[in-house]
Amino acid sequence: MTLAELTGDISSIGYGLAAIGPGIGVGIVFAAYIQATARQPESAGLTRAYLFMGFALSEALALFGLALAFVFSNPPA
Amino acid sequence: MSVSILAKEDLPWPPKVEDFYLDPLVGTDPWVTKFTIMMWIAVAGLIVLFAVALRKPKVVPTKGQWIAESVMDFVRGGIGREIIGSKGDRFVPYLTVLFCFIVFMNLFGIIPLAQISPMTHIAFPVVLAIISYVMYIFVGIQAQGPGKFFKNHLILPAPWYLQPLLIPIEFFQNFIVRPVTLSVRLFANMFAGHLILLVFTLGGFMLINAGTAFTYGVSVVSFAMAIAMTLFEFFVALLQAYVFVLLTGTWLQGALADEH
């Protein structure tokens, strides 16, 4: 017996799952930068490069998810 | 505004990967496409900016000289001296040209009539990442010697019985994941940006074509989002160029430093 049937592609669901972790990570990176700047405003310039570095490194995982979602998708012929 | 701007059948909906492959401009083989032309324009822009603006540097700078000098100063202060350190000035010309080239290439994504960045094809970021990668290894071997360079990048201070586990991980991280992420980051950002713009712009036309009063109203929201995302893309274009150069600077810093 078939209860429900789905057609299409689940690679975009995979991308959604892959974006959870980097989303949290990027949030933590910016939260930490704001907190550091609020506590010590003169350190803003000092830590900005590390802000973008941490942002870029955690964002890379989401972008891998995006690229792989297209790689493993099965476009309807 | 005329309602039937584009017929429903003409709209490439939904946006797909095939939309990124443009037709060749000359002949049938894709040797000369819009991307080729855009890259020539970007290179010409770079040459004009730096060769013409800095040919006869004056104490009181002209406008072009001021632009070229402030970009160079930004890279030297933000990356050369702050990240790489005292030996960083050597790499400032390369990093500046890299930064400007990526900015020019990325900005084609939002310039009218161009409307797609060459960086949406991974071949362009891969070549730039290979240049940075070769430079990183070359500079590291030159500064530390091959033995010390690979020892610093492969062997962590850990108990000897963990080394069989750690060395492959370090190798994978430093010599495989690094260049791959560097190129994929730039490519995927530009790719995703163009896809988002396609979704909102074509979505607006699709809503107009749907032909009810409600969808006319929603299509306005869709076009407004397209404009907002275009402004966001401008920010992403600059940010990703900065990140690319920043990470290249971090590699060079690791290659020049004696210890971790």
Secondary structure elements and pairings:
The complex is a heterodimer of chains A (77) and B (260).
Chain A: H1 11-18, H2 20-39, H3 44-71
Helix pairs in contact in A: 1-3, 2-3
Chain B: H1 34-53, H2 63-84, H3 92-107, H4 123-144, H5 146-154, H6 163-210, H7 213-256
Helix pairs in contact in B: 1-2, 1-3, 2-3, 2-7, 3-7, 4-5, 4-6, 4-7, 6-7
What does this structure look like?
Chain A is 73% helix and 0% strand. Chain A is an all-alpha fold and 77 residues long. Chain A is elongated and about 65 Å long. The two termini of chain A are 29 Å apart. The model of chain A has no long low-confidence stretch (mean pLDDT 87). Chain B is mostly helical and 260 residues long. Helix content of chain B is 70%, strand content 0%. Chain B is globular. The N and C termini of chain B lie far apart (62 Å). Classes of the chains: A mainly alpha (77), B mainly alpha (260).
The fraction of residues in strands of chain B falls at under 5%
Q: Which whole number gives the mean pLDDT of chain B?
A: 88
Element pattern of chain A in H and E:
HHH
* Class by SSE composition of chain B: mainly alpha
Biggest β-sheet strands, sense, barrel of chain B = none
Into which percentage range does the β-strand content of chain A fall? under 5%
Task: Provide a count of the helices of chain A.
Answer: 3
Portion in helices of chain A: over 70%
Quaternary structure of the protein: heterodimer
DSSP, total strands of chain B: 0
Characteristics of this structure?
heterodimer; A: 77 residues; mainly alpha; 3 helices; 73% helix; 0% strand; B: 260 residues
Question: Briefly, what is this?
Answer:
The complex is a heterodimer of chains A (77) and B (260). Chain A is an all-alpha fold and 77 residues long.
